[in-house]
């Protein structure tokens, strides 16, 4: 198979922009739940940086790329081409929790470095077996991870990625709502998009949005309900929780009040999906960093390619920090796969 050039999968207009427009109008009342990012053009120039803050949970930072960055030697255009010229080992894996045995994951996947079991049990290859473009991607994502964490300004240093999952998407493929909140993972997750444009959306999980379990039958334990900004009935929930905490009502009153609210909301039936709070286009060369344990615990994200055959090929390369000490016995034997040392040419300086 001949590799597709970047020009074959994205049009001239997409190749050209220096500053991409934000994809929604924040004054649009219909989209009132959308979070407006903080936009910064200088600090990481030539990248444009979008930061979305999810109060009580963390941040989502997007480093928006452009033609100047993408066309540099060994940059995103070259990596896109080179990833198609080597045998990356991409294949579709059976979903571990599939209703019908043998159902395959939608995307093609390969994992490098520390083992990472998500909805599919993907084999891991050592970084020592990885080709140069994969290690250059790791270099770029290590840069993005560091910069996004530093920007939070709490003096924290990022847990460096030691795992990289490559996903290949063809026309119309998508990845449904999920989180990357496996207990073996550190709090920072960085992805690089290559090739066709995709749209990423993020929303609060049902149980935290409504304060109810998914079948709407049970009320969350108040200690496990953070009553996040943007959740349904927030003021009422905060007040009730406060009354419980300061002892002005008993637990049974708390439950009673919730029962009434459950009835009022939906007569005990499942409510609608929580509204999307972040929507953003992922273009060729863009990097997105989700930072904070709460982003995975309280929110879920999905990524979809354009429908209708417009999208020909997209790679999403995601790097995480797998905590060696938290791996089970089965995986421990493979932990050495996470060791790597990038050469100066594989290390990224943000240009
Ligand atoms: O396709 C993407 O950009 C992200 C993929 C993703 O959500 C994941 O690897 O968990």
UniProtKB/TrEMBL annotation:
Source organism superkingdom: Eukaryota
Family annotation (SUPFAM superfamilies): Clavaminate synthase-like (SSF51197)
InterPro entries noted in UniProt: AlkB-like (IPR027450), AlkB-like_sf (IPR037151), ALKBH2 (IPR032852)
Boundaries of every Alpha-ketoglutarate-dependent dioxygenase AlkB-like domain copy: 102-320
One Pfam family this sequence matches: 2OG-FeII_Oxy_2
PANTHER family, sorted: ALPHA-KETOGLUTARATE-DEPENDENT DIOXYGENASE ALKB HOMOLOG 2, FE2OG DIOXYGENASE DOMAIN-CONTAINING PROTEIN
The name this protein goes by in its record: Alpha-ketoglutarate-dependent dioxygenase AlkB-like domain-containing protein
Organism: Aspergillus lucknowensis
